[in-house]
Write a structure and sequence with these properties.
The protein is an all-alpha fold. It is built from five helices and no strands. The longest helix has 25 residues.
Length: about 160
């Protein structure tokens, strides 16, 4: 019997990230450089930070999947709730499709066997990491939807 190198999981994960990329784009409707820096409260992140954090995490995941990439904004979008100068929303938004395409292609290149492999028994597999990052990103997209309403915008569309 010949064993096939299937990519069922890769296609599924790629679909998750493609779908969420569409939601990311929907989140941008009616946003301005001014309103993305409005914090819903003094203990919450503004939309600029959340958008940048999603971008930062896509870079991080792409690196874990074997791509030689690094976020152009360093760790700006790693630590939350800091009062500092942030890159313009346009810079973040323009970089998002670039890393997204690379990330999705890298996911699609992986076999189910590669995604299930663990470097050590106590280490997560690539599939575990993709599951976590997909959930993590969806969580932050939800935060953007909520923050949009708080700053006076309509909820974003999911399609």
């Amino acid at each position: 019997m010949i064993e096939q190198n299937t990519k069922v999981k890769a296609e599924l994960f790629a679909t998750f990230f493609q779908y969420q990329a569409g939601i990311f784009q929907n989140a941008l409707m009616e946003l301005t450089e001014e309103n993305v820096l409005k914090r819903p409260s003094d203990r919450s992140n503004h939309i600029n930070w959340i958008l940048g954090h999603i971008l930062h995490c896509r870079y991080m995941l792409a690196g874990r999947l074997g791509l030689d990439v690094e976020s152009p904004f360093g760790d700006t979008y790693w630590k939350a709730i800091e009062d500092k100068k942030y890159p313009k929303m346009e810079e973040v938004v323009n970089d998002f499709p670039k890393i997204s395409e690379k990330l999705i292609q890298q996911i699609k290149s992986k076999s189910d066997e590669e995604l299930d492999h663990r470097a050590a028994q106590d280490q997560p597999s690539l599939a575990d990491m993709l599951s976590f990052f997909s959930y993590h990103e969806a969580y932050h997209l939800g935060q953007i939807g909520y923050a949009r309403k708080i700053i006076g915008l309509e909820a974003m569309k999911s399609h």
